[in-house]
Amino acid sequence: MANYNTFTDYEKQRKLQEIEEECQRVKRGKYWVLKKLGIPRSTYYDWLKTGGKTKSRAPKTVWNKTPEAIEKLIMRIRDDTNLYRSERSYLGIADSLSRDGILITKNGVWSVLKRQGKNRQFIETKKIFIIYPRSQRFLEVVCIDDIGLTNNKPRELSVFNAIDEYSQESVAILFVRHRINRHDVIELLEQIKRRYGRYPKIVRLDNAQAHKSWAAKEYCLKNNIELQFIDKGTPQQNWPVESFNGVLQKDLFNSKLWGGWTDLDNKQKILEDYQEYYNIRKPLDSDPLKRTPREIATGKTSLLTQKRLKIKLLRKHRGQVAAWQEIIKNIKQTTVIAESLLKAPCHLSEMCVN
């Protein structure tokens, strides 16, 4: 099978220039130079005719172009604001023309609209919204939101969450067996007060009726808490709690640890256990150092995180071998400590026998 070389337009122009320079240098004919360079004469003259540019394969005349009378009819339907939006789309225009006896495909209508620059007329632009600057201190901004579990009125089940924006620590969590109301908002803030000894400065929340209630506003005003409502339809402004809701849904609600829906008395205990795991043991993917929320909130890293960062720096500055040696050293130290604990005398069995 013959091998063919494909040249770009730039390479063709360089080859033409190289042929001219070689002819002037060796004082020989072009046939001899073309044979030396391995370029067929027909290829050379094709390049010379087009100036080294690739021939366009598009036809000069579009034989299946829509007649001008039908194009005007299509544009008249498109610009008619008295029609529904679906009737002015390319699908609606094609159906309307077919009812009038004009057979044209939907792709044909779309091609006419594209040629006139109106094929993207109904595409909605992205909504522009403001992302608030991230807080730099713990409990400066707390984001609250609820995640609905069931929607069987009046027995709605929800989980009410409060997440610190700076550390992404779960500062409060509440299992609710009814629709979220003003008392749940107050209970969530009181839970933060009992756990940390103070209220957050700013509470960011959506425009739900319970959040805008008179009792919740009066409670926040009494305790010097500023309410910061996000724009309607922009949950991105409340991103910390929305992210936690997704993690909670994937990590807990879809696992067997959550259990069924018959026993609802221990759900608050399950949520508090997961909250402790999330704050202390689960590293954040968004953090460059992969710290836990509690480490970010307190500014103190655990021994496990320090060892992991040490191995990461060794791998960066001294290579994979040095990092692997440090990992083996840590494994041996852990094994020695575990063996010493097993060899230590234990009087538990004697107490059990007695």
UniProtKB/TrEMBL annotation:
Q: Which residues form the Integrase catalytic domain?
A: 129-301
What high-level taxonomic lineage is stated for the organism? Bacteria, Candidatus Ratteibacteria
Q: Which GO terms describe its biological process?
A: DNA integration
Which ranges does the record mark as transmembrane?
none
Against Gene3D superfamilies, the record matches this protein to: Ribonuclease H-like superfamily/Ribonuclease H
| InterPro entries with a match to the protein in the record | Integrase_cat-core (IPR001584), RNaseH-like_sf (IPR012337), RNaseH_sf (IPR036397)
* GO molecular function annotations of the record: nucleic acid binding
Name of the protein:
Integrase catalytic domain-containing protein
